[in-house]
């Protein structure tokens, strides 16, 4: 109860002599500092709202326009062509102002209106400029003058110091493709996967849909695209993620790894101190909108950053919801079956790394035992959603359980001080990385809170990792945070020679607070059932994570081939050698060139890629013929990737047409079949977005996800520097068709075989 007494700002007792009032000056000071911090944040948000609302102009430009208009008036020049005089005639001053004051007020009103019109014109001009995507299809090194001029104008209109959300209202809306184009591209994508009879049948279904059902569904979708900010994103979040009733562990959540070979400190509490502090610094930059929008030639949408922190997925009977708070002053830490609430601020300031280390060390030193049912409580978030939703309503709606659950769900993020050691070990290079990946993906199924937007894991040997809930954002958003955290930890905060955080902690900081639970017997049974479901799912995951270090994108660029296309063709070749057949392949691409854009699918298995693969397994084909087919396949892949990024993909369009058909109660055999097709090879590249923060050897090992299909593979890869590609391959032990290690070996051989086609050694010698 000590913490409760410290939280009381004043106490009073009634005595025969009157009321004895005792004030706690320290508590009142904390109340004052907390309120001051809150008001500062409100003011900052208000100020940033104004700056974002007028971008690419600035509030100071209003003063410039006002001064210019008033100056011309004093010079007896009317810049308004008579409008200022008309405004003056309609001022309801009733003679209280002098003629001069009326003239100044009229000029002020006119100049404000002029400034607003200029701001609107600038924003619309920028939006029009950003709607042009032809620059993506310009061959490398052959940029025409018109595109260079466009780039220059975009740069001028983009301003010098954009805030995180400055470009949001200037980004164009995601366009709705025509039904005819989507049907054509769909049939093209499935042609290599179907025999002639199957293809003719699918052609007939597509034609029937295009002529009969499609136009009506398209009309509703067009209507939504005019009304909503993005015609895909809200339905994508709800129906693909939040309405899923199965476990989100493995099936939805994904992970991010630490450095591959480097451990900045072996001290668990110290690594926690620096990295948690780094995450909070990132959150502060995000609150202040100091994270610059990701920009290549043009800015990308930043809306996914909004729910990164202080967010949690709340289970429901039919659909889950995302809960997001504007602020949170604590994290919840899990260690050996106990939950601790750790405050992040003291005296109105953020805890320093050494102070967070002290808090973590207190938790590590705590020898108390878990309360009844507490140790495996988080298994509820790892199992099926409906039992968790019912248990939440029945056992966590009042008393200590409600308060403790709210502490978790309202935390900035969730932290696990893991009692295992993970990471790359030279003596066990293969199994060590596989175990590391599986630990980040699912752990023990009860030591991560899978509903939190971010579950941060610090292992006993100082290695770290992240498990992210998927509904609120995609992997590049997490990647941006993770790059910042690793760079800040290594290059800005650093450690002492003993491996501890730098600085001296304040010993007066409130210690971690144990969360209290009353877990009844029926609730324990639900926890046990959820754990059983989750454990079965986790045990079935066959994961293989490995560094491919034979060559990287540096060598691939010498071949004048897109590194991503190179890897994708290697995956196609590896899959054919592994299974002896082709399959529907998913590669994620971003649509963040549009407002609230998320992802689109690149269907990497094409007629061109299958012809190349068949040539590679045909010994009668010459290297020249194989190389020609490879270039055609890589070019086709790059073209599809660019079209997907520019809103010309097909899968999100088909998905939304299907949703509309369900709302209208219309049955479409074509859509039903298309949406039920399994992605037996699901792939994703993790981009490195902030190379300025890193030496290549200090870049994260990337991250991965579970298999999408029961008899398929999930593949994630990151190109680290110029000479390394880290791979993450998942499948299921229960499938006799798959083996992650076997596929990994086929992939490595495919990479080497494709590179051999270019004969770079002979070209270099020439």
Automatic annotation (TrEMBL):
Pathway info: Lipid metabolism; fatty acid beta-oxidation
Biological process terms in GO annotation: carnitine metabolic process; fatty acid beta-oxidation
Pfam families reported for this sequence: Carn_acyltransf, CPT_N
Entry keyword annotation includes Chaperone: no
Active-site residues annotated for this sequence: 470 (proton acceptor)
Entry keyword set: Acyltransferase, Fatty acid metabolism, Lipid metabolism, Membrane, Mitochondrion, Transferase, Transmembrane, Transmembrane helix, Transport
Cellular location(s): Mitochondrion outer membrane
Domain Choline/carnitine acyltransferase: 174-749
Membrane topology: Multi-pass membrane protein
InterPro entries, sorted: Carn_acyl_trans, CAT-like_dom_sf, Cho/carn_acyl_trans, Cho/carn_acyl_trans_2, CPT_N
Stated family: Belongs to the carnitine/choline acetyltransferase family.
Protein name (record): carnitine O-palmitoyltransferase
Classification of source organism: Eukaryota, Metazoa, Chordata, Craniata, Vertebrata
Underlying gene: CPT1A
């Amino acid at each position: 109860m000590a913490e409760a007494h410290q939280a009381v700002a004043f106490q009073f007792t009634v005595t025969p002599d009157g009321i004895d009032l005792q004030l706690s000056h320290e508590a009142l000071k904390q109340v004052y500092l907390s309120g001051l911090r809150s008001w500062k944040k409100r003011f900052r948000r208000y100020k940033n709202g104004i700056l974002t609302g007028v971008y690419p102009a600035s509030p100071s430009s209003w003063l410039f326009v006002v001064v210019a208009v008033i100056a011309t008036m004093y010079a007896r020049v009317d810049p308004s062509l008579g409008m200022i005089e008309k405004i003056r005639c309609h001022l309801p001053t009733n003679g209280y102002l002098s003629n001069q004051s009326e003239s100044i007020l009229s000029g002020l009103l006119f100049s404000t209106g002029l400034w607003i019109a200029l701001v609107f014109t600038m924003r619309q001009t920028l939006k029009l400029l950003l709607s042009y995507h032809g620059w993506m299809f310009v061959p490398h090194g052959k940029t025409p003058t018109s595109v260079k001029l466009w780039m220059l104008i975009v740069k001028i209109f983009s301003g010098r110091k954009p805030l995180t959300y400055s470009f949001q209202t200037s980004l164009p809306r995601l366009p709705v493709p025509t039904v005819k184009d989507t049907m054509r591209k769909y049939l093209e994508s499935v042609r290599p996967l179907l025999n002639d009879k199957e293809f003719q049948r699918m052609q007939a279904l597509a034609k029937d849909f295009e002529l009969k059902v499609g136009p009506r569904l398209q009309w509703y979708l067009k209507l939504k695209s005019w009304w909503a900010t993005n015609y895909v994103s809200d339905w994508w979040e709800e129906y693909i993620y939040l309405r899923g009733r199965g476990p989100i562990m493995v099936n939805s959540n994904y992970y991010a790894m630490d450095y591959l070979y480097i451990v900045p400190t072996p001290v668990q509490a110290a690594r926690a101190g620096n990295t948690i502090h780094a995450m909070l610094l990132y959150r502060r930059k995000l609150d202040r909108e100091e994270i610059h929008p990701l920009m290549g030639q043009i800015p990308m949408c930043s809306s996914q950053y909004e729910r990164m922190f202080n967010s949690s997925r709340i289970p429901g009977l039919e659909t889950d919801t995302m809960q997001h708070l504007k602020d949170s002053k604590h994290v919840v830490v899990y260690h050996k079956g106990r939950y601790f609430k750790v405050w992040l601020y003291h005296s109105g300031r953020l805890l320093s790394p050494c102070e967070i280390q002290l808090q973590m060390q207190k938790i590590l030193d705590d020898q108390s035992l878990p309360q009844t049912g507490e140790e495996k409580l988080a298994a509820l978030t790892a199992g099926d959603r409906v039992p968790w939703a019912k248990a939440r309503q029945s056992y966590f709606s009042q008393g200590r359980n409600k308060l403790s659950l709210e502490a978790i769900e309202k935390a900035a993020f969730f932290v696990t001080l893991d009692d295992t050691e993970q990471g790359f070990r030279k003596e066990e290079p293969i199994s060590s990385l596989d175990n590391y990946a599986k630990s980040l993906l699912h752990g023990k199924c009860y030591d991560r809170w899978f509903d939190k937007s971010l579950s941060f894991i610090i292992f006993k040997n100082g290695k770290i990792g992240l498990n992210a809930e998927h509904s609120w954002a995609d992997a590049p958003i997490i990647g941006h945070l993770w790059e910042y955290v690793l760079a800040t930890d290594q290059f800005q905060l650093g450690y002492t020679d003993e491996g501890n955080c730098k600085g001296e902690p304040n010993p007066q900081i409130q210690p971690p607070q144990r969360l209290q639970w009353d877990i009844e017997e029926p609730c324990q049974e639900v926890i046990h059932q959820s754990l059983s479901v989750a454990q079965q799912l986790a045990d079935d995951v066959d994961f293989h994570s490995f560094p491919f270090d034979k060559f990287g994108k540096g060598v691939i660029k010498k071949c004048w081939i897109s590194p991503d296309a190179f890897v994708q063709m290697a995956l196609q070749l590896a899959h054919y050698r592994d299974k002896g057949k082709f399959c529907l392949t998913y590669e994620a691409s971003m649509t963040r060139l549009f407002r609230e854009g998320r992802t689109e699918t690149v269907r990497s298995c094409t007629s061109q890629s299958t012809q190349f693969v068949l040539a590679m397994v045909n010994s009668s084909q010459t290297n020249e013929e194989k190389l020609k087919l490879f270039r055609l396949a890589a070019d086709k892949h790059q073209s599809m990737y660019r079209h997907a990024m520019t809103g010309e993909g097909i899968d999100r369009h088909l998905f939304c047409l299907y949703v509309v058909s369900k709302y209208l109660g219309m049955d479409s055999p074509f859509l039903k079949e298309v949406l039920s097709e399994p992605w037996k090879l699901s792939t994703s590249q993790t981009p490195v977005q902030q190379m300025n923060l890193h030496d290549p050897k200090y870049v994260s090992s990337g991250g991965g996800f579970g298999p999408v299909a029961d008899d398929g593979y999930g593949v994630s890869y990151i190109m680290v520097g110029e000479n390394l590609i880290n791979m993450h391959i998942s499948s299921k032990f229960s499938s006799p068709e798959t083996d992650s290690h076997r596929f990994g070996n086929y992939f490595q051989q495919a990479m080497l075989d494709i590179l051999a086609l270019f004969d770079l050694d002979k070209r270099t010698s020439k």
